[in-house]
From TrEMBL:
The keyword Lyase applies. It is an enzyme of class 4 (lyase). It catalyses: (2S)-2-[5-amino-1-(5-phospho-beta-D-ribosyl)imidazole-4-carboxamido]succinate = 5-amino-1-(5-phospho-beta-D-ribosyl)imidazole-4-carboxamide + fumarate; N(6)-(1,2-dicarboxyethyl)-AMP = fumarate + AMP. InterPro entries: Fumarase/histidase_N, Fumarate_lyase_CS, Fumarate_lyase_fam, Fumarate_lyase_N, L-Aspartase-like, Pur_lyase, PurB_bact, PurB_C. PANTHER family: ADENYLOSUCCINATE LYASE. Pathway: Purine metabolism; AMP biosynthesis via de novo pathway; AMP from IMP: step 2/2; Purine metabolism; IMP biosynthesis via de novo pathway; 5-amino-1-(5-phospho-D-ribosyl)imidazole-4-carboxamide from 5-amino-1-(5-phospho-D-ribosyl)imidazole-4-carboxylate: step 2/2. Catalyzes two reactions in de novo purine nucleotide biosynthesis. Catalyzes the breakdown of 5-aminoimidazole- (N-succinylocarboxamide) ribotide (SAICAR or 2-[5-amino-1-(5-phospho-beta-D-ribosyl)imidazole-4-carboxamido]succinate) to 5-aminoimidazole-4-carboxamide ribotide (AICAR or 5-amino-1-(5-phospho-beta-D-ribosyl)imidazole-4-carboxamide) and fumarate, and of adenylosuccinate (ADS or N(6)-(1,2-dicarboxyethyl)-AMP) to adenosine monophosphate (AMP) and fumarate. Keywords: Lyase, Purine biosynthesis. Gene3D superfamilies: Fumarase/aspartase (C-terminal domain), Fumarase/aspartase (Central domain), Fumarase/aspartase (N-terminal domain). This is Adenylosuccinate lyase. GO terms for molecular function: (S)-2-(5-amino-1-(5-phospho-D-ribosyl)imidazole-4-carboxamido) succinate lyase (fumarate-forming) activity; N6-(1,2-dicarboxyethyl)AMP AMP-lyase (fumarate-forming) activity. PROSITE patterns: FUMARATE_LYASES.
Length: 455
């Protein structure tokens, strides 16, 4: 079979391929090759400025040409590297050879050709490339997708700030809230989670085969290679320097990043399930599109599929992200290769996360509040006023307030009339009694509206 959207093993490259367009150039094999070329080029240019007797500073024309190899890197270039790899059977060496091929006819670059990949182990190129890949994916795709969800939820929280809603704790009727306040809770959690994702420092190293600059110092013992490496990593690549490593950068920062994304996804799984429940209760209606079918046999149905898809894809994302965060920081002695094959699945993990954000955004855009259902639910739950009544009774030292309200309400269907009759019989100041009599489940929402508007 030829590879196509229909024959792809992963739905990310099949059914959902069109929704992965922003992530694919960054975390694919192409994306890895692109960043490898970038790192090799920046290391090469920096070496020319390091004061090495055998490698003078490159001309502006050569620098422009070299960086053009990065900015104009194409699928054709990536395929050429892949073709070289068929001979070398080594992916990083194939990149080195491809770069040297580009020097053909350029005397200045050809003369310095052996400084491509100078003193580097493959992991010097790979770990920096992975850092650049994650930096781009975080800044260009993951955070913008998460921000879209947060912005929509913030808008909903404020728009629905005053819409009263019956709470349910342990599945049972509880003190009322507002729809907006419950959404604001999610916004507050997501904002904290987003900050953690954004604040993870992406670390990198370029210190040779076992992290000690052995080869570097054997060739140029008088160069401060640690300072040089830090300059390349921080100033030219925009990553954070890790001075202590084995052959590999130990990937602790990746674990931090993936755990942070997992935490945000978990919050959204929680929210997806809640929205699913609110749709089931009728609190929300879903706008439909002409021609869409909710059920193959029940024409009336409008299934909450976007929230179900979001939940499922966040679960897949978290499963892979959790494996990445637990496996990547572990390497036998100075290195083993178990991280290499696992790292190729960063795009899978973040791809499912992106799919979750996209599905959730689509679902949120379809929601419409159903005030009638909210009001009916509240009006059927007058027992929730037992809490404010017994609290006021406590204030005025009436005997056994909790026990008296428990006897009145627990396990019983309580009407407005029964509640009001109970209040009328209490020995309370008249003003307090009237305040309680004026209260209803729909008005007993505390500070919910203010909290929702403040978000």
């Amino acid at each position: 079979m030829n590879l196509s959207a229909l024959t792809a093993l992963s739905p990310l490259d099949g059914r959902y391929a069109s929704r992965m367009g922003t992530l694919r150039p960054l975390l694919s094999e192409f994306g890895l090759m692109h960043r490898r070329v970038q790192v090799e080029i920046e290391w090469f240019i920096a070496l020319s400025d390091a004061g090495l007797a055998e490698f003078k500073p490159l001309s502006d024309a050569s620098r422009s040409f070299l960086r053009g190899l990065v900015s104009q890197f194409s699928e054709t270039d990536a395929q050429a590297i892949k073709d070289i790899e068929k001979t070398t059977n080594h992916d990083v060496k194939a990149v080195e050879y491809w770069i040297k091929q580009q020097f053909a006819g350029k005397d200045e670059l050809q003369a310095a050709g052996e400084f491509v990949h100078f003193a580097c182990t493959s992991e010097d190129i790979n770990n920096t490339s992975h850092g650049l890949m994650l930096k781009a994916a975080r800044e260009q795709v993951i955070l913008p997708a998460l921000d879209k969800v947060i912005a929509k939820l913030t808008e909903m929280a404020q728009a629905m700030a005053a819409a009263p809603m019956l709470s349910r704790t342990h599945g049972q009727t509880a003190s009322p809230t507002t729809v907006g306040k419950e959404i604001a809770n999610v916004v507050a959690r997501l904002r904290r989670a987003r900050t953690v994702i954004a604040d993870v420092k992406l670390l990198a190293k370029m210190n040779g085969a076992v992290g000690n600059y052995n080869a570097h110092l054997s060739a140029y013992p008088d160069i401060d290679w640690e300072a040089f490496s830090q300059l390349v990593i921080e100033q030219q690549l925009g990553l954070s320097f890790n001075p202590y490593t084995i052959q590999i950068e130990p990937h602790d920062y990746m674990a931090e990043l993936f755990d942070a994304v997992t935490r945000a996804n978990t919050i959204l799984i929680d929210w997806s399930r809640d929205v699913w429940g609110y749709v089931s209760l009728g609190y929300f209606k879903q706008r439909t599109k002409a021609g869409e079918i909710g059920s193959s046999t029940m024409p009336h149905k409008v299934n909450p599929i976007d929230f179900e898809n979001a939940e499922g894809n966040f679960g897949l994302a978290n499963a892979v992200l959790t494996h990445l965060s637990q496996k990547l920081p572990i390497s036998r002695w100075q290195r083993d290769l178990t991280d290499s094959t696992v790292l190729r699945n960063m795009g899978v993990a973040l791809g499912y996360a992106l799919l979750g954000y996209d599905s959730l955004s689509k679902g949120l855009d379809k929601l419409e509040l159903n005030p009638a259902a909210l009001e009916a639910d509240l009006d059927a739950a007058w027992e929730v006023l037992a809490e404010p009544i017994q609290t006021v009774m406590r204030r005025y030292a009436l005997p056994n307030p909790y026990e008296r309200l428990k006897e009145l309400t627990r396990g019983k269907a309580i009407t407005a009339e029964a509640i009001r009759e109970f209040v009328q019989g209490l020995e309370l100041p008249e003003a307090e009694k009237q305040r309680l009599l004026a209260m209803s489940p729909a008005t007993y929402t505390g500070k919910a509206e203010a909290l929702a508007r403040r978000i």
